[in-house]
Specification:
Layout lengths: L1 H10 L2 H29 L8 H16 L1 H9 L4 H25 L3 H25 L9 H29 L4 H19 L20 H6 L1 H13 L2 H31 L4 H33 L1 H20 L4 H29 L2 H29 L7 H25 L1
Helix pairs in contact: 2-6, 2-7, 2-8, 3-6, 3-15, 4-6, 4-10, 4-15, 5-6, 5-8, 6-15, 7-8, 7-12, 7-14, 10-15, 11-12, 11-14, 11-15, 11-16, 12-13, 12-14, 13-14, 13-16
Length: about 425
């Protein structure tokens, strides 16, 4: 298969392998950490979770550090990205240990959320840096395949990390703190692996003699830098369209995620352990969809174009979400999880490639940070909307049909704009 051949070529590149290893350890740790937090907030026996409570938790964890995104982008375009991976992961390892101790101590919720927020805030620098660094380790003609492998492998690593956290939680009661400490160990591994990359390899590319700014200088440049980044993005029409579509699809994914959490917690199980096992199975099935997207996306992008494949992903989700989801039964919903994993990851691979190809390196960090902010704001917004619509048992025909309509509108928007500009 051409895809397998292309993957073999990429894996022969030492710097690509090392960058991929940093991503795998880092995102596996993210998966462990996030699932440990989710199970602590949603599936603890002493907590009576509601859609509003889930939305509130997502807002606390995601919205504040979304404000860091523009700052992260400006600094990523000035700091050596290898150093961001090294020191960022070391800091996350330490902060994750602090979170684990707070869980054991059963501190007030606000203190727990503050600690969790500090870990996810650093995450903005690392994930945006990984995407911005990829063109430095592969050729321009390899970006589609690299984006099919690297972010998808990272998502699968996060899924595997989440599965590991589920196993720890199921084998030992009250083990959320242990899972968080496991995540800290993986963050430490990511930091150590980053040392295999040369300090200046990953950019950003600056003229000779240009010095890196201090933190204060970088923050002072944020407003001006982000304005320049937005102007640059506005001039790259295809990248802007891809980001818009991906944001809408992320909103849909967020709403359905809250629904799935409530179904697993209250409709499909009689106790927290069974609900947690069902959620773990759904995440695994969705991960299989991510893996399938990695295999088929390079082939389909070559035939449909990046925006054409995003359009197909949105249109397929628009048809299959109500077809499968309106049963509100575990079997069809698991099939829907696979479809959404395939559609969401296929669209993301294509969007990453468009942004990397269209955006100049001096602006890439800022644009990917904006991309990240849009991702999180869309997800939290979806959770807020879902909290207004969903009953406690998670069964809502209105939500399913609304999400399907938004997927269809996204596909129609891309199709019409594609015809207008071709």
């Amino acid at each position: 298969m051409p895809v397998v051949r292309d993957l073999r070529v990429l894996l022969r590149l030492r710097d690509f392998r090392n960058l991929l290893a940093v991503r795998l350890f880092s995102q596996a740790a993210d998966g462990v950490y996030q699932v440990a937090l989710a199970t602590y907030v949603v599936f603890s026996p002493e907590k009576q979770t509601s859609p509003a409570a889930i939305a509130s938790a997502m807002a606390v964890l995601l919205l504040p550090y979304s404000a860091i995104g523009p700052f992260a982008g400006v600094l990523l375009d000035r700091w050596r990205r290898r150093q961001v991976f090294l020191y960022g992961n070391l800091l996350r390892a330490f902060l994750a240990c602090v979170t684990g101790m707070l869980i054991v101590a059963q501190v007030p919720d606000w203190l727990f959320y503050a600690s969790a927020l500090s870990v996810t805030a650093v995450n903005r620098f690392v994930l945006a840096g990984l995407s911005a660094s990829l063109p430095h380790v592969v050729g321009a003609d390899q970006l589609v395949t690299a984006n099919a492998l690297s972010p998808t492998a990272g998502t699968l690593a996060a899924t595997a990390g989440g599965g590991l956290a589920f196993v720890v939680r199921l084998l030992a009661s009250d083990s959320d703190a242990l899972a968080v400490l496991l995540g800290a160990g993986l963050y430490l591994c990511a930091a150590l692996v980053s040392l295999r990359l040369a300090a200046g390899l990953l950019g950003p590319d600056h003229p000779a003699g240009r010095r890196d700014p201090s933190v204060i200088e970088g923050v002072a440049l944020t407003v001006r830098g982000m304005a320049a980044g937005l102007r640059h993005l506005a001039a790259r029409r295809e990248a802007a369209r891809a980001l818009t579509a991906m944001t809408l699809m992320r909103f849909c994914y967020g709403a359905l995620t809250v629904m799935l959490l409530m179904l697993c917690r209250y409709s499909w199980s009689d106790n927290e352990s069974d609900g947690l096992a069902l959620l773990g199975l759904a995440i695994g099935v969705s991960g299989a969809g991510f893996f399938t997207a990695a295999l088929v996306t390079p082939w389909l992008v070559a035939r449909l174009g990046a925006l054409g494949w995003i359009t197909a992903c949105a249109a397929g989700a628009a048809v299959l979400v109500p077809t499968l989801g309106l049963f509100f039964a575990p079997g069809p919903m698991l099939a829907a999880a696979f479809v959404l994993g395939l559609a969401t990851q296929g669209a993301k691979i294509s969007t990453d490639t468009v942004v990397q190809s269209e955006v100049d390196d001096d602006y890439r960090g800022r644009v990917f940070s904006l991309y990240d902010v849009l991702f999180n704001v869309a997800f939290v917004g979806a959770a807020a909307v879902a909290s207004l619509v969903l009953p406690t048992d998670g069964r809502s025909v209105v939500l399913i049909l609304s999400v399907a309509a938004l997927y269809a509108a996204t596909a129609l928007m891309l199709h019409r704009q594609g015809r207008r500009f071709t």
